[in-house]
Amino acid sequence: MIKAGIVGATGIVGQQFIVALKGHPWIEIAALAASERSAGRSYKEAITDAQTGALRWFCQEPPVEEVMAMPVQNATEMDISALDIVFSAIESDQAKILEPKFAADKPVISTASAFRYDEDVPILIPGINSEHAKLIDVQRKGRGWKGFITPIPNCTTTGLAITLKPIYESFGINAVIMTSMQALSGAGRSPGVIGLDILDNIIPYIVGEEEKVQRETQKILGKIVSSSISPAKFNVSCTCTRVNVREGHTESVFVSTQKACEVNDVARVMREYRGSANEAELPSAPKRMIIVHEDPFRPQPRLDRDAEDGMATVVGRIRKDNVLKNGIKYLLVSHNTKMGAAKGAVLVAELLIRDGYIA
Amino acid sequence: MIKAGIVGATGIVGQQFIVALKGHPWIEIAALAASERSAGRSYKEAITDAQTGALRWFCQEPPVEEVMAMPVQNATEMDISALDIVFSAIESDQAKILEPKFAADKPVISTASAFRYDEDVPILIPGINSEHAKLIDVQRKGRGWKGFITPIPNCTTTGLAITLKPIYESFGINAVIMTSMQALSGAGRSPGVIGLDILDNIIPYIVGEEEKVQRETQKILGKIVSSSISPAKFNVSCTCTRVNVREGHTESVFVSTQKACEVNDVARVMREYRGSANEAELPSAPKRMIIVHEDPFRPQPRLDRDAEDGMATVVGRIRKDNVLKNGIKYLLVSHNTKMGAAKGAVLVAELLIRDGYIA
Amino acid sequence: MIKAGIVGATGIVGQQFIVALKGHPWIEIAALAASERSAGRSYKEAITDAQTGALRWFCQEPPVEEVMAMPVQNATEMDISALDIVFSAIESDQAKILEPKFAADKPVISTASAFRYDEDVPILIPGINSEHAKLIDVQRKGRGWKGFITPIPNCTTTGLAITLKPIYESFGINAVIMTSMQALSGAGRSPGVIGLDILDNIIPYIVGEEEKVQRETQKILGKIVSSSISPAKFNVSCTCTRVNVREGHTESVFVSTQKACEVNDVARVMREYRGSANEAELPSAPKRMIIVHEDPFRPQPRLDRDAEDGMATVVGRIRKDNVLKNGIKYLLVSHNTKMGAAKGAVLVAELLIRDGYIA
Amino acid sequence: MIKAGIVGATGIVGQQFIVALKGHPWIEIAALAASERSAGRSYKEAITDAQTGALRWFCQEPPVEEVMAMPVQNATEMDISALDIVFSAIESDQAKILEPKFAADKPVISTASAFRYDEDVPILIPGINSEHAKLIDVQRKGRGWKGFITPIPNCTTTGLAITLKPIYESFGINAVIMTSMQALSGAGRSPGVIGLDILDNIIPYIVGEEEKVQRETQKILGKIVSSSISPAKFNVSCTCTRVNVREGHTESVFVSTQKACEVNDVARVMREYRGSANEAELPSAPKRMIIVHEDPFRPQPRLDRDAEDGMATVVGRIRKDNVLKNGIKYLLVSHNTKMGAAKGAVLVAELLIRDGYIA
Predict the structure, then answer these.
(1) Which of A31, A254, D34, D101 is surrounded by the fewest CB atoms within 10 Å?
(2) This prediction's pTM
(3) Distance (Å) from the C-alpha of residue A295 to the closest C-alpha of chain B?
(4) Can you tell me the distance from the alpha carbon of A351 to that of A334, in angstroms, rounded to the nearest whole number?
(5) Domains, in order of start, for chain D
(6) Does residue C77 sit at the B interface (CB-CB below 8 Å)?
(7) What ipTM was estimated for this complex?
């Protein structure tokens, strides 16, 4: 079994890692780390509110009994010597400091954005750009690390990049316009979105999100050219909003393709999309990466976010657009805290284990 | 005082007409009509639930005491001889039958879509296309009516057409892409959107809505050429969704302009937009047709829908778009049941009274 | 296998029966019936919207493929000759007419209230009052039926009666005061609660609900005395409200007990409660009928409604009350459309099959 | 004009004070104070987010232009020499330190709980226990202060105490049982209730709330006996929950009265209740303290919270209860951030100004 440590284990993303690894066939949780305040306590103590005795467990799934007695280490002094991999669930500013420290010795798979835009760092989505993993060798060599850092994309990028991939392969893409209606869970809990602000409302701005989506989509759909990634050439323009939905980002997408294509062609290439290298056989992978509905009332976040345990991207309302050149429009729902966060990162780990980057 | 009748007076739109006309300086309610079931009862009886005694009053504003004792007539046999104008708040299939009957004698201002797309019927938004009122003469003559029919636009068209107008005038428009996040009130109450379906959810489809928005926007921004409207030439592509917001449609708009323009130019022409013919002096008109926010977290439907008593369109996040030619993007919030429904229809009546079409 | 028919199969409760019986070890679905409109079509056709092609499937669980090709019969002419049992998911006024017709020949288990208050009709909750099944013989004899009718309780009664039972057994009960905060799904979809009415709101009245809870609780906790039920003697006073929660009724309960008891005693008798006759071994039964939390922030409907697949009642905040004699207060969450509806009715069927009332 | 200072002016309660005092006929805002971080800046600067330029204004009412240029002082060093009164909108732990400092010189009216339970401190609700103001003299004398402290009640106590008062006067009270369904705004914004936690949910526990309601209700309805308050003798047992409503606490109340009374009697004494000393003539006072609905679907928080600008308590569903001795039950809605917070505190100031305690 691969021994994994989780940094940021008491937060919501850390807890999602614990859920994603429960009963995992290849990976076991061997260490947990969090802030100094939690250090030295059992995991259960660390997530128990001292005043009220309430358990601060934030996942819809029940608390994972197996980790409750495990000790929590101080993240800044974490002993990673016995680990094979570190899952990082910390904020970006902390990640800037801690992740390179861990990566000097061990592979780090991160949900933070700190290193996503570095030239020698791939943003991996297994099945979409698995071949970008080659950049890991460049990174190791250039930085003199035994380990490496591979971040996953921003949760809003994930579903967009996945659904664009078969279109890009089959028809080419000139440009993408997207409006997102993002779930509350994407904002986390510190404090995330306050109930007072979102009830009967929409928040029309998510700081930094739109820039991330454009940059990451181009990088993920880019090609490796002489040991670096040449980003895809099309532009992505988006408006990202927050709506009163618990989980599951909904995106309204308009695409201009290079070759003309019919609605049925787009539905077909999405449905048939299988990834580049048998990724569907990985333990956490969805059997179908993309599910396409004919029912015009789908996808809906509440009904579709959990498809394939939150690992599939669900698409509907594929139609012609009459504004863009060879315009196609559709909606997608993507589970932002499953495929878009911890479980997506575990899937990356599975790919890298299978392909020999982690051992 | 102009004497008005309201057809469909017991429904939610009818009640909004009653609220919009309460204390009106020019218009008084002189007759109410509804289905056969209500006919012959007082308005209060007609909206009182027999079983529970509950008042079926659906507006946020308190019930209007002045109409409670008024008799309700049967819409199909309504006596309009003493009226100067009929406000129609009925469904489209009924409107097809009843509105021409009324229009043979009297001016009819309607929230229904039944006649919106007829060649000799203008879709009026005072201040945006007031000059289309000229088509009324063509209509009267062609149909041999003493009265006429002027429908208001679909509530999703209203805010879009209003915000596009100053851009169109100043810079020209090549194309528009829009994703709407529409409020529950837009779906009415028969039964409208069920709570079970929208809680923690988005409905990605509103039957017929997208076609209406494209067609109406082009017609509203079109020009009168030899006694008919030549629609604006740009295409409008949209995706319309329903979100868990009570009132106020939010729209994410991407515009390609003919002349290049800066963000500040767009903000300026929107802020300075005053309409073509002193419409701001009409009793129900907003002082500012468009309010532009600099705060990137605006507009929000809950905070902005009631601006100028729901008659202003509120815009924010005007930015460059890097996909469309001379691309500009922004968000808007428009009150779908004030400017977008009954009170917007009352504003049309005011324009037509002032300009001599109703007397 | 026991062959079951479902009447009202296209509605939400009917669909919940289909889900509850999917893969059932003892019972298979052998017939489906609904209104005349659906008769003669396949189940899939019957629940497909003709205009949009959308599937009108209302459960959170995916549609059950096994029934899609089954024919739907007209409920009023349903052929039940080959069935062993009929599950009735129809409205009460229809149930009054159809259920006796079916019961003349076959056992009918119903979610409707039509016969709940008849003297010879038990309202069964397996594990709480299984012994009331004896009344079936009285009913058959008295009415000259080969079959019988056993309704389940109102969904708000279920969790209350279950949690009161161990208190009643161990300490006796003088009186109960309860305020409910009920989920939207309890109101069904015809049209149920409109989104506009419940967003940012509470509806303080549910027609007929409070009377049902008092009467049913007394009957369920009553004793069989010479072939009829002598209701429990304590009064139940409640106020039932509707809140913006999708599933899971929350109830705030205050109980006056006959013997004084401590908080720990109440928690213990609830936790240890196992039912009267090995009901936990029935296929749909929860392993624990009542789950008691120490965490004062539990139970919460979203976190606790699905405990034991919605078949457990979850209790928290057991405290002393200083107003009632020997006062105890607590909150409970009960899944109103699992234990409180179709799956609860299937559990009744299992009890009656095991105990020889159905064969 | 009475010159008022607001301490905690940048928080949500501080902003509600600013709104409540806008255009006040007797009181003008003369000083604002907040944390050290805000000190030395204009109010507008202090509530503007440096990163995004967004205005952190939390009230539904628009920002009050008149205060935007006013300087914000450091609360711990606030100069109160020119003030006639201090409104305190700070947290309880801070209030413990700062309020006595201010009270040494000036009258302090506070929304904090810090001093509510001190023997010489009245918890005033004008019209309910105005005569408790006499305790101010005892307080001043005992503490050697020129000023004094008068806190308002917890927002959940307010509506309960108001509706119990006419019952208590007319029929006497033996005991009260109450379940509250409280709005999000009652939890404030630091961070208050997170959207993720309350969507599709109820939180069954509010730390400390239940104890406050019991204690404060008894004190408010108590009598002054030889210079201290003798609390009302009846017990109050409650369960306080949080629901997904923005503003307006709903309470389900069960009361045992000493004298038997009919539903109509209770409705009448509530409707006729006018307070003890012409409080309705105070500028912020509601014309009707209690509004009683016959419609069984009222009160609803969204429809009734704003009655009399949030200063009336709205009651409905008055019925007999069959559990308590002379039992009566009803529901109430009370605006927790108008009558229950800042505007309620301004009303206290008005009473004390009129009666000569502030000058």
Answers:
(1) D101
(2) 0.97
(3) 10
(4) 20
(5) 2-152+342-354 (3.40.50.720), 155-334 (3.30.360.10)
(6) no
(7) 0.96
